[in-house]
From TrEMBL:
Residues 5-55 form the Disease resistance N-terminal domain. Pfam families: Rx_N. This is Disease resistance N-terminal domain-containing protein. It comes from Quercus lobata. Keywords: Nucleotide-binding, Plant defense, Repeat. The keyword Magnesium does not apply.
Length: 83
């Protein structure tokens, strides 16, 4: 009779351990997924930041190079703005 009780307890303990191991493995997978997603998001944000900075430089440079004003010496013609 003691043998049957011990077998029952061992069976239940093994079942609980298997469930816990499965849960822990799932947590590990979830953590790895979150880690991968955060790396991807960080790369996206760095790239977006670089593109934004480049766009700001181009806009600033564009305003410095391209503004033109009507040329009083000829209708329809423009000349670059000079300070």
């Amino acid at each position: 009779m003691d043998s049957a009780v011990i077998k029952y307890l061992i069976s239940n303990i093994l079942s609980v351990l298997a469930t816990e191991a499965s849960l822990l493995w799932g947590v590990r997978d979830a953590i790895n997924d979150i880690k991968d997603e955060s790396i991807s998001m960080q790369s996206f944000l760095v790239d977006a930041d670089k593109k934004g900075i480049q766009a700001m430089k181009e806009r600033k440079l564009g305003w410095q190079i391209y503004p033109t004003w009507p040329d009083p010496n000829g209708p329809g013609f423009t000349r670059p703005y000079k300070e």
